[in-house]
Every structure is written in C-alpha cells, then in structure tokens.
Predict the 3D structure of the following.
Amino acid sequence: MSILRSLSMLALVAFTMAQGTEARDNFLVILADDLGVDAVGVYSRDDLYGHPGEGASPGPTPWIDQLAANGILFRNAYSSPTCAPTRASTLTGRFPFRIGIGEPEGAQLSIEETLLPEVLASTHRNGVAGKWHIGNNSDIDHPIDSGFDAYAGPLSGSVPSYFSWPKTTNSSTSAGSTQSGFATYVTTDNVNEAIDLINGFGDEPWFVWLAFTAPHTPFHAPPAALISADVNDQSPAEDLYRAAVEAMDTEIGRLLQAIPAAVLADTTIFFVGDNGSPRRAVVPPFVASRAKGTVYEGGVNVPFIVQSPWIDPADEGSESLALVHTLDIFATLTEIAGQPNPAEDSVSLLPYLQDPTLPTRSSRPYAYAERFSPNGEPPYDTVERAIRGERFKLIWRDGVDEELFDLSLDPFEAVNLLLSLPLEPDAETAFNALSAAMETLHTSSIFRNGFESGGVDAWSAANEPDRTDAR
C-alpha cells in the first residue's frame, strides 16, 4: 500500500472514531462443504482479472460473486483434500499432521488444542451455525468443550437428507440435545441459526463460524424458492450439485441482508471451500479422478474470498495471486483482534488485504496439503502430500511415487515432469527446493497431544521419502 493510501486509511479510521462509531471488527467465516473453484461463478469469469477463468459451467452465485466484487479474490488458495482436516486445521491454524486428523472418518480434534474462539474469547463473543465434523460425529459437547459458546447444526460429516436430519443444539450455559428428523432444509437452518447468533450479540464484537453442509451429498432438489434451475431428485448429479450451490448462495444473500448495514461494514467476511468439488459433480476440463479427496488442484485449490473494512475501497474487486491456505484465517483474525497467534503454521493475510498486489510472503513461500490414514500418530498406512511454489508443484505419496508439475504451463497437471529425466534446470531447482521444504516442515517442529517425545524421529523413520528410490 502506498504512503498516500495508508494516510487515507488512517484518516478514515480517525473520522469514524470522531463520529463515535468505532469499528467493532466482527468476524464471519463462511465455509462451504465440497466446493471447488469450478463451482463458483466469479472464478469462471474471463473478463474480470486480466486472464481466463478456471470454472467449467457453474450455476449462478451472485451473492458470492458480490463478496468478491466488494473484496479480494484469492486465486491460489489451498485446503486439505477432505472436510474434517480442513475444519480442524483452520480452527487451530496448524497443519493436519500436527493435530492427527488426516481423514474424515472418526475425526476427533483434541480439546487440548487451542482453537480460534479461545484466542478471541477476551474480545469476541462467538458461536457455530452448521456442520461440525471434528468431534467423532456424536460428541454433542465437543463444540463447547473446544471453546465455542453456542452450537446449532449437524455434528456429522453429512446428513441423511437435507429435509430430515439430526440437529444438535448446545451452549456454554445449557445442556446439549439432538432432535432427530429436523425438517427445515438444512442450508436454510444454518443461516437461521447464524442470524439468531448475530442478533443475540447486540453491540458486542462477534465471531461466527458458519459451516454449511451444502453442497455435500446427498444431492436433492432444493426448495424451488431458492433456485432458478428446474431440477428434481432424478436430475443428473451435476445439476443437483449446482442447484445446491445456488441455494446456498441465495441463503448467503439472506444472511447478508439480515445484518444491519453498519454492522456489516464492521465485519470481515471469509468465504472459503473446505476442499474441491466431489467427483460426481465435476465436468471437463476438470477431471473426476483428481477432484475431492486428492491433492491434485481439483481437490485442494479452493474458493477463497475476503470482504473486509481492512480493504481499501480502491482495491475492492481485486485479485491476489499469493499462495495462501485456509488455516491462514487464524492468524488474520487474531492480528485484527490484537491477540497473540499461537498457531505456528498460520500466516496473517492482513498485508494482502491492505495491498493485494503483494507477492507470496517469505514467512511461508509455499502452499501445502496432505492426506493420511489412519487418524492419530504415525506411522500411517497411507500418506499423500503436495507442496507448491509460485510455479511448480510436487506430489509425494507413500514414499515411492512422485509427480512434478509446472502449473504455469500445465494447470490441470497432465504432464508429470519426473517421467522425462533429466529435468530442465528450473524444474530441477524447484524439485530440490520443494523436497527440502516438505522435509523441513515435518522435521523442524514437535507434535502435541502426547507426541512431543521422540515424535519427529518416529515420524521421520516411518514416513520420510527416500529421494533416491523416488527418482
């Protein structure tokens, strides 16, 4: 940001405070379930950011697109390949291998972890509306034990039906309960609960974690009032998926319209996907075998949009090409709130909000994603990891398989450069750097949850790649 623009921002803050309406810095994190960049309208646009879009044929998402028009779209944002690891790492600011959650099945985040609501407790009231899925699907106290004051939604990874599902409610002041067969369309109920939370906070600063179940399976025709598409439950999966996305977008619009304008102006909003689109829903040029559940781009490159009072009005509608991760939400919100950041993997995005043209921060010059099984401590039965820099991406799995892609020329990862040795000099340099960065990430830190003693050595012996064999 230029000195002139910085002074302008300071002048705006001073004027606001002089009027007696000091900003409260509310935080709204909207997490969509199984939503890749191919499913969001603004990511497919060829006319906005000076380069072709990357979506295939998304349904209408005008409210999400408006968030981008009012904020900053991050093009190179990453998550875990599946939902529970992304939720756990976003709320802790720590990569999945540190917290022992690499798979959705049986995911149980330790309550010993420090979660975002706990760090913000002295400044922000808080609550969760929507899917939890990091408390082993059945622990009704887990959201409250993890630092949230209120919870309402489905605890498990999916619902049996969007129109009949088990709804759990709980709070720090009352006992939790679950109502089976709850009949309100789950996407609508998620927003109902978010609105109730925000209204209940009054004039106090707040943090709301709105975690949609949509557009995760099962695929249903949403209520007709929420969509423009003509679909029924027998429509093709990709059509029902797009309709679920549109219904979610419509409900996001209802939420944004329900928040008073003055409150909304004080609110930093993150809209992100927890992983890529599901295999049944992707259409060319995206590939089903490289969608959700994989560390290919279709599985881990996700929508990531921020609308915030910390963005200069002159930068609204901008795009950032920096490498970022969903877990960076943690450091961003703690910095805005003036709280310490205990999360070693999370990097604040506030500099990008203040200047979206900035390159990737040197504090973490890569994007990383992984999947491992089973959950818990290593050794693991299966491991799959990916790490990318500005241009090249390295994939490693189970100690034997490696792939290297030049994303600048090959965005859909069709050509594995490691099949044509020797590598070109740029690719060789990138391979060595990314390999070293991946190894350093895992061997330079200690683990928590009873894994401090000997953890690094144990992990290294069982899981570090053999670079000689791999190549």
